[in-house]
Amino acid sequence: MSSISTPSSSSNNQSNNKNQKTDLINETNKTQFPNWLELLEDIWVLIFSKLLTIELIENVQKVCMLFRKICKLPVTFRTINMTVPSDRRYVDLPRSLNNLTRYAIDSSAGGLIDIYLEYRRGYRYNDIPHTTLTYITERCKDLKHLRLGYVYNLSLTDKKLIEAVKRLPMLEEIQFIHCSFSDKTVEAIGHACPSLTSFGLNGAECKLPDYASSDEDYMSYVVDFMCNEKALAISKSMPKLRHLQLIGNSMYNEGLKAILDGCPHLKSMDLRACFHIDLSGDLGKRLANMHLRYPNDPTADYGHQSYYISYSDYMYLGLSESDDDRMSLDEFSHYYSL
Predict the structure, then answer these.
(1) Is residue 19 in a domain?
(2) Rg of the Cα trace of the chain?
(3) Shared domain check, 157 and 223
(4) Strand, coil or helix: what is 177?
């Protein structure tokens, strides 16, 4: 004889099922939607270190009181990445990029370790003034990593750059991306930074004409000095290098050989887009035990132009508008201390 459920037992079953569903939803919410505000400050600092500095200043610190508190910690600005996104929000900033950088430097309270300066917005270039680099040398003596992008000798001249690095004795890494500093400057920087173990000189170099000149002596001069000049400068002045990045360099085998002879401690080299070198012979064997990225390896993770461009285009890359100081540094600091 089949059992018949009473109204009370049916109601209890429905109530139990409802409670089970509620518990399941609550457990699911706990799994999928954790309380992010309960994360430790150290974890937030690590997360913020992956963001562009301009985003921290302009956006992140305005989200909530916790984020504002973390953005006031000097440790948050131990690494500064002053890349300016080609985003419509950043096209017409009311504050100058120079003062944005100085504000970030002040926020580090002298603890700045790594800085990358790139005042580029889309196809518009903004000069990095030498006063910004001076500002760093006066306040951040422990700087270990200096990286500059898209500098074309408008304000930060070769002489000013050399003067600055001489006042940064702890530098271990210097990287230039699409900068127009000369081979003499590269050599002077090497001599001025005895602790340098990592160096990068990346950019789209000028491509030589495809036709071969009938003047063999002239072509020999072009190859030895115009194409290999920076490689020779590195070989003469950076004997302690462990890591070298030369994406898009125009050197030939002679320049690479000079680097290997002058930098015997090299452990890794990035030679992507260095299309003038040939590693099929003995030179390639010398690189066998090194962590190597080859000329034809993909550059998708590089994030910058890496191929050769015409000489005429290269000459016009430096034309830019200097960034104006639309708000003084005092006004700027007061604006963000409110």
Answers:
(1) no
(2) 27
(3) no
(4) strand
Buried b (16+ CB within 10 A) or exposed e, 89-105: ebeebebbbbbbbbbbb
Write the DSSP string, 308-328. -B-HHHHHHTT--PPPP-SS-
Q: What CATH number should be reported for the domain holding residue 49?
A: 3.80.10
Q: Provide the percentage of residues in the chain whose pLDDT is more than 70.
A: 65
The backbone torsions φ and ψ at residue 269, rounded to the nearest 5 degrees and listed phi first, read -140, 140
- Enclosing domain of residue 56: 27-180
230 membership: H or E segment, kind and range: helix 229-237
pTM of the model: 0.73
Give 289-309 pLDDT, tens digit per residue: 899 999 988 887 776 766 544
In this predicted model, what pLDDT tens digit does every residue of 66-76 receive, in sequence order?
888 888 989 99
Going by C-alpha positions, the residue among 272, 276, 279 that lies closest to residue 306 is: 272
In whole angstroms, what is the distance from residue 287 CA to residue 226 CA? 24
Verify that 172 and 38 share a domain, yes or no.
yes
**Which neighbouring-strand residues pair with 81?**
116
Assigned domain for 337 exists = no
Nearest Cα to Cα of residue 66 among 46, 32, 40, 101: 40
Give the per-residue pLDDT at 111.
92
Residue type, 52: L
Tokens representing 142? 């422990």
Q: Is there a contact between 268 and 243 (Cβ–Cβ < 8 Å)?
A: yes
* Terminal-to-terminal C-alpha distance of the chain: 79
Residue 83 β-bridge partners:
118
As a whole number of angstroms, the distance between CA 257 and CA 261 comes to: 6
Q: What is the mean pLDDT of residues 34-60?
A: 81
* pLDDT tens for each residue of 172-190: 999 998 888 889 999 999 9
What pLDDT does 293 receive?
A: 94
